[in-house]
Write a structure and sequence with these properties.
single chain; 197 residues; two-stranded antiparallel sheet; 6 helices; alpha+beta
Length: 197
Amino acid sequence: MIQKALEKAMDDQFAEHKEEHPDVAAETSRRMACDASAVKWREDEDGEPLNIGRKSRTIPPAIRRALQKRDGGCRFPSCSCTRFVDAHHIVHRADGSETAMDNLALLGRRHHRLVQEGGFGVHVGAGNEIWFCYPGGDTLPMNADGRCRGNAERVLALSEENGAHITPKTLPPHWGGESMDYNHAQQLLEPYDREDG
């Protein structure tokens, strides 16, 4: 009875304000609900509150700490993000899953959006290993795939392979903080301007 009354009230409220507020995509709502706060609220048939519970996290703090320890940061392949990560339900709660360690992974905000709204998939294998797939279904490699953006270890490894030994002193500036000499800069750039026509 309470559930039906709540659904009717929500439908009425939605219809009343539909033109004032644009719709929110279902996947956006799912992403936001992954690591959100929740307040339990029960009403009687007249819409009067029967019970209003305390605000709680959908991911309890103890599980959040355990996730941080296990994952260390974003689990998306080749991502080194350790801050601003969300706990993601691999099988979403709306689909009947539980908030348990074997159903959770930390994802950075960008990768969380890719998984929830961009069509990328995240799955748990037989041995509880987490793997990702492209929107078309092909599996993402778990190691760096040659792209270096955001992956300092891969940049250093490629540089070493090509004979470039990068250290903190590799590119010391020869600038002492003086003002830029615009006339000199213009003289250096003029030959290139003439070549273009």
